[in-house]
Design goal:
single chain; alpha+beta; Uridine Diphospho-n-acetylenolpyruvylglucosamine Reductase, domain 2; Alpha-Beta Plaits; 5-stranded antiparallel sheet; binds flavin-adenine dinucleotide; binds (2R)-2-hydroxypentanedioic acid; binds zinc ion
């Protein structure tokens, strides 16, 4: 590719594949696609293409591979590590699957649903509900994120505890390779040991190995009983003990166990319409407990009652509320799911997506708090997340200052410095620096510090085998030295 970017004639050839109505080139139209939600990355691109079929995606990739044109897949643009954002100062063409948003098939007997890569997660939920089934992936972004992005980031969310992450929820894939070939792996089998698992290579690859255009997803029976409670606690140690108690009492009926700090509740109450403080007085920590049963509604009710009773008796719970209607259940979940966005109006937030073995969460938090507050006195630590999975969004809002707006950039400039405190701590507790959001651009240069040389070498060889021309979302996940990637 010419370093000045694709020539107008080449852009015309790309546009002709999808038709003029499905191409964006005006900077105003492109603008929302050049930046991600946190505003950390802002890229450039001459064109966004919206193909309407797998065949059109294949034609785009064939032309891209023949002409060495870099392509960035983007679906809902809710990713948190800049994987969907074109490179700054580059000429990557954005390929959006927003028109490929169909539910292709639902089979409630085999418990599978086949969707286009551009199907919106909330629409997949609705299609499953229409046949009395559940698709359990649950994210705050479910109204806008799409299946191709969920698979490519191996998304997690609030139901991983019971149902697993996206990798566990997928049986088969349809993928357009960087060469333009189509791999039809839309198999519906639970058991299939026939050679290397190609599907698992594309899941979590963040668009660096191919474009996911379709997927076979697993469905589950709709729960019969469902209970949601919020408990106020004194410490993360108590939260862990309560989690252990809940696991013992509820077993697989425990479908969510989320942790939130007081400051996160305050941010959410302050900045989210309709969210109220869930308990009478303030508490240092809150856990959101979700229980689903398949036999009867009474079982779920008995379980939540018994859990809270024992939690009070053991001195773990200071106060609690059980949602008494579907509306109240939604309100409690809404508070938790709004916590990510509620940090934005509080100035800069330096974020982490760490995981440690669940039993180590309190020790990790204590060590991280101490180190972070030494480095940034007054920092407002808003560490929340999926306690049941050992996955904490260890986010740190900037200290309150006279001019928060002006100080935000200076604070965010300390991002790497703060990562360098928190990430090694997570590793020292046997953890990971990216539990569910991926690597993208944000953590690309840290990957080699946390994966072994053999792992890095294997990842580079896989990348080169699938994408020898280096056109598939270059600059993301794995750096290929000397290849400009
Ligand atoms: P995009 O952002 O468009 O893309 C994400 C990555 O996938 C990029 O690298 C992109 O190039 C690649 N990609 C996209 N589509 C394709 C495709 N068809 N083929 C190949 N590659 C592709 N994430 C969690 O895991 N857990 C959470 O609890 C969670 N909560 C969130 C809450 C909020 C409020 C927000 C804004 C985000 C949250 N996220 C969470 C992050 C985000 O929603 C997920 O990463 C989501 O899975 C990305 O889907 P998307 O369609 O927006 O993908
Ligand atoms: C969540 O669990 C998301 O709400 C987002 O993964 C976390 O804002 C964040 O860091
Ligand atoms: Zn999360």
């Amino acid at each position: 590719m010419d370093i000045s970017g694709p020539k107008p004639e080449l852009l015309d050839r790309f546009a002709a594949i999808v038709g003029a109505n499905h191409v964006l080139t005006d900077p105003k139209d492109l603008a929302p696609h050049l930046v991600e939600g946190r505003g950390l990355y802002k890229g450039s691109s001459p064109m966004l293409l919206k193909p309407g079929s797998t065949a059109e995606v294949a034609a785009i990739m064939k032309l891209a591979s023949e002409t060495g044109t870099p392509i960035v897949p983007q679906t809902g643009n809710t990713g948190m590590v800049g994987g969907q954002t074109p490179r700054t100062g580059g000429h990557d063409i954005i390929l959006s699957l927003e028109r490929m948003n169909r539910i292709r098939d639902v089979d409630p007997v085999a418990n599978v649903l086949v969707a286009d890569g551009g199907a919106i997660l909330a629409d997949v939920h609705k299609a499953a509900e229409a046949v009395n089934r559940l698709f359990p992936l649950s994210l705050g972004s479910e109204g806008s994120c799409r299946i191709g992005g969920n698979l490519s980031t191996n998304a997690g969310g609030t139901a991983v505890l019971a149902y697993g992450n996206m990798r566990q929820l997928c049986l088969g894939l349809e993928v357009v390779l960087p060469t333009g070939e189509i791999w039809d792996g839309l198999r519906r089998l639970k058991k299939d040991n026939t050679g290397y698992d190609l599907r698992d290579l594309f899941i979590g690859a963040e668009g660096t190995l191919g474009i996911i255009t379709g997927a076979v997803l697993k469905l589950f029976p709709q729960p019969v009983g469902h209970q949601v409670a919020m408990a106020g606690l004194n410490s993360t140690e108590d939260a862990l003990k309560l989690f252990e108690l809940a696991s013992n009492l509820c077993g697989t009926a425990l479908t969510g166990f989320e942790l939130m700090p007081r400051i996160g509740v305050e941010f959410t109450v302050r900045h989210t319409d309709g969210v109220r403080d869930p308990l009478e007085g303030p508490h240092a920590w809150y856990t959101l407990i979700d229980i689903s049963t398949s036999d009867s509604a009474e079982t779920a009710e008995a379980m939540i009652q018994s859990l809270l009773e024992q939690g009070f008796e053991n001195g773990l719970i200071q106060d609690a509320v059980i949602a008494s209607s579907l509306q109240q259940q939604r309100a409690l979940w809404n508070m938790r799911e709004s916590m990510s966005d509620a940090q934005k109006p509080e100035g800069g937030s330096i974020k982490h997506d760490i995981s440690v073995p669940v039993s180590k969460v309190p020790a990790f938090m204590a060590a991280a708090d101490k180190a972070v507050l030494e480095a940034i006195p007054g920092a407002r630590i808003c560490a929340f997340g999926h306690l049941g999975d050992g996955n904490i969004h260890y986010n740190i809002s900037q200290p309150v200052t006279a001019d928060m707006g002006a100080d935000k950039a200076a604070y965010l400039a300390r991002w790497r410095e703060v990562n360098a405190i928190v990430h090694p701590l997570a590793i020292s507790f046997g953890g990971s620096i990216s539990a569910e959001h991926g690597i993208g651009q944000l953590k690309r240069d840290e990957l080699a510090d946390i994966r072994t040389p053999i792992e890095m070498d294997l990842m580079r060889r896989i990348k080169q085998a699938f994408d020898p021309a280096g056109i598939m979302n270059p600059g993301k996940v794995v750096a290929i030295p000397g290849a400009g990637l």
